[in-house]
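User: Okay, second chain of the day. Same drill as before: sequence in, structure tokens out.
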Amino acid sequence: MKKITPIFVSAAIFAGSAAAQSTITGTQDASNPALFNDAAAWGGTIPTFSKSTIVQLGGIAGATNYYKLDDATGDITIRKLQSAANVDGGFYLTTGTNNLTIDINAGSSYTTDAISFSDGSVQTFTLGEGNYSIISTGTTTGLDAVARIAMITSPLTADTTKTFTFARGSTLNAYTSLSLSGTVGAYGTMNVAGTINTYDAEGLNAGKLIVDWIANPYGTGGGTRTKVLVNDGGVINTGDLLVRPRSYLTVENGGTLSVSGTMSWELSTTNPGCVLEVQTGGVANIENISYLDNVTGVSGAQKILVTGGTLTAATVAQKNSYSVTTVSAGEFNVTDTFSIANGSFSVTGGTANLNNFTQTGGTVSVNESGVMNLTGNISATSLNAGSGSINIKNGSTFAVSAATFKATAGGNFNVENGVTFTASDLMIFDGYGNSSINTVVNSTKTGTANFYSLQINAGHTLTFGSDAKFVNSSKFSRFSLNGNLVVNSATGSIVANQLVFWTRNATVTLNTKNALITGDGKYETIVNIPEQKTARFVLRATNQFGQVFFQGESVSNPMGLYLDLDFASADDFVSFTNMSVTGGSNGRIFVNNFENNRIKFQTKYTGENLFVTDFDGNAIDWEWVEDTVNGGWWINAVVPEPAEWA
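Assistant: Same drill. Structure tokens below.
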């Protein structure tokens, strides 16, 4: 890459002087372009190029007009390139081995346009192979410090769409700010197949790139005004990137966008927002992505779309309700911090790898086989796996207060082994999907009365893995069950003083021995069955509980305790300390795979309103049988009386 050292000229030197303007007429033969040192192409006289020169490109309307900064001319510096009126064909400029420098800060009247093609003039313009430099910083400030490549149409005419192309092999170095500006009346497109670099005034550090559109004094209309497409082989390297309203920056297959500083947006009260899209095969590397703070009265959104390529950023902060990030394919990687306070972040396909994730508001969702991997220090209030997967990765620190974890359409929410997991308030698992926890959950919620530390809503299945623990030292901590709980944890791993069943379909599957334990270290978890509800257990190992509490029943639809005895060993059993029946209800125990010495109560229930049936409702002929060795009473089948002698 060829760098130059800008020479700054005071505005006072040019005060009152008129800028030189000359017209060069192109040819229609690509192999025989108009040469900058050809007097005939200039109408007889080659101008003396200076930083006050405006070069007007002329040619035949409707044709492609070719120009070349030839070797005999050498490096030149001008103020501006513009097109002749009513030449509506195409323009193709190449510098060969020379360097064309445009210094917009030289001249008696300042302009922001470095290259300008106006209404009725050009439809297409191409910077061919060669080296180009644009200097936009001198003694001026504000808008005059920004160089603009502008494809302009009138909002009052039917002027056609204009296209500007940085061809493969072209290198444009901008000092310090460059604006790629579209059109007012019709869509404008800039294709970057070459290389654009921005630098500071000294050419030592990166500068700034702006994707913009020209203000429309006649109204706003609809649609995007500026489209910058980084094509296959195209490269943009800049320090900061500003995307203004009605602008669309797309990194296409084979294109590369590198932002070493901050990407930011501007919003408008009248114009739609702006978009960065990384398509399949495209690569974008951005140090900081900074959405605007909360504002009111704006239109549209600040959008990032990853539709198949790879976007990597160090930091991302979503603050505004109009901020939108969508990953539909490809990868979105945040290596330092990602925070969302408002707006939305969604993964509808592809993968999002987010480090140090913080959510204080907004919506976060994963759908359609999308994957979100969270690492580092994580805090969240509401994560929705939808039909995709959210994974809290090994080695992370996961801190939540009152949080809801959703998998609304069959998705998965997973916490891996090795995560440091702290919950200071109620955790809710919601939606028709699945969650798995395979690490230690330190539940620090406390209270002086019965409270819930864990809630599983209808349709959701939460699985505690083999390495999982749920720790809460309070003797009042309860689980609220409307969905399903599966426990594969070791003995004494899951602290739950009560299991409260709030539906007829909630099921607890216990695949290991005595995984449930109370806060005081006893295997006496209470099974609480409110009126017209059902407690369903699938038991594959010995499990001991505290009281089973029947609070009432519907006469027309009696509920109760369902025990599906699917024990792995003949020695396995299920036991309860005692049974309590209130509210005029009956104690109803439904048993699948009933056998003797499988169901025990430490204290025999003396009431007569205890009924034992199979899952089909058929009565089981049973009786209390005392365990004279270990204590307690078995519910066993009645032994038939001996038959009388004939």
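The longest strand covers residues 397-415.

User: Thanks, on to the next one.
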